[in-house]
Amino acid sequence: MLTFEDCLAMTDLTEEEVEAIAEHEHCHEMVAMELGHCLVRTEEGVVRIRQMITEDIAMARARGDTRHAEKLQVVHDRFCEKYPQSLRREIHAELH
Q1: I need a surface site. Which of 38, 39, 56, 75 has the fewest CB within 10 A?
Q2: Residue 7 lies in a domain
């Protein structure tokens, strides 16, 4: 039987990224892991994951949960470092 950690190792995501997807989609972490695994394979998908994390940050700030917003900001920044194409898409859209 595969464990959570086994499944996570098969994705290109961190546990924190999976948690952010689960938070955004209001789903179980295993479902979020599967969704993230599919999304991270395309440029549009990494843009979508970055948007999810950004929206999670906004929601945390809106409810006054500064600590969680700061944690998510770290997740966001690391995700963007790992997947810089998640930012290029936004820049490209602004030019057209």
Answers
A1: 38
A2: no
How far is the C-alpha of 22 from the C-alpha of 16, rounded, in Å? 10
* pLDDT (mean) for 40-57: 95
Contact criterion met (CB below 8 Å) for 36 and 27: no
Domain count, the chain: 1
User: For 22-47, what is the mean pLDDT?
Assistant: 96
Residue 6 lies in a domain: no
The range of the structural domain enclosing residue 65 comes to 12-95
Of the CA atoms within 13 Å of residue 48, those in its CB half-sphere come to 15
Kindly report whether the global pTM for this prediction surpasses the value 0.85. yes
List, in sequence order, the alpha helices (H) in the chain.
4-9, 15-25, 29-39, 43-62, 66-82, 85-95
Residue 1 resides in a domain: no
Contacts of residue 42, defined as CB under 8 A and 6 or more positions apart, other chains included, come to none
